[in-house]
Structure formats: structure tokens, C-alpha cells
Amino acid sequence: MAFSHRIGKLTRSIERVGTGESLDTFIRPATSKELRLIKRTDWLFDWRSELTRKERQVFGLWAVDDPVFLHGLISLEQRPGHVFAHLIESHRVNKGRGKLYDGVLGNLVAWACHLSFKTGHYGEIVFDSKSSLREHYRVALGAVVLFGNRMYVPESKAQELVERYARSWQHGN
Which residues, 6 or more positions from 79, have their beta carbon under 8 angstroms from its beta carbon? Predict the structure, then answer.
């Protein structure tokens, strides 16, 4: 499965489009109970199925002032030498021209880098990208092509992403 969404602009948190209002966020493991409540029409990927994969951990992003609305999800796996990001997705209302909030995907990628640092992998995350988005991820995230559509975020860029977003995280590890 490939990363298939544009990272909106990099913000310092999630930011309301139009007003620029920045919201504090928290990221934590998503539970099966929470994912049972989400509507499949709001998401492209089958996140309930993703939770059943024992080698992966699914994390959700919420705003502190609205801890019920799930802004985005990411599925991560610890591998030798790095963290692999299998899936990443913003809620339907945070996609495209009419989106409500910017910064959801950047926030989740920064979280993956944070976990990679915590587990001794130097912040590096690896993911598969759609061909049409490789250049976008290179520019937006500082990602580097390993081969084909496989990309990674190197330590220096991972550190920049974590520093950008970590101040907005109110809870989590």
C-alpha cells in the first residue's frame, strides 16, 4: 500500500484553513472501539482491518478541544533499523480544496519520526509512495527515494518534523 495523499502545508499543529487558528493535538493508539464508531464513507482505507494486524500499531490524531473527532490515522510497524509507515490518511473533511484543517498528515508523519527516535531508529521512517507524489514528498518532507516508489525520511529531516510538531502534542509518548 502506498502513501497516496498530499501532505498539505507544513504547520506547527493542525491549522484551520481560512483562519489560521492552530489547535493543540494529541496522538495515541487508536482502539477497536473508536474505529467501530467511524464511518467507512469518511475513510479510504479499512482501518478496522488494519488494527487486526499484530505487527502494526494504528495511531490517531485528535484536537485537544474536540477529543471525539478523529482527524487522521497512521499505521506503523517496527522493523530492523526503521519504522515502516504502511498507511496514512486524513479524515474526509481534511482532504482536498474544501478541507477544514491543514497539517494533519505532516503531524502524523512527525509522530512516526518521533517513535522512530524513541526506538533507536534515528527518526527514520520508510514508506511507499505513489509515483506522482514522490517529488511532493521530497519537497514537503525531505524524503529521499530508496528505490522505485520506496522512500524514507532521513534523520535530519525527521528531527525538523518532530521539532515542528511536538510542541502541539499535549498527550502521548
Answer: 126
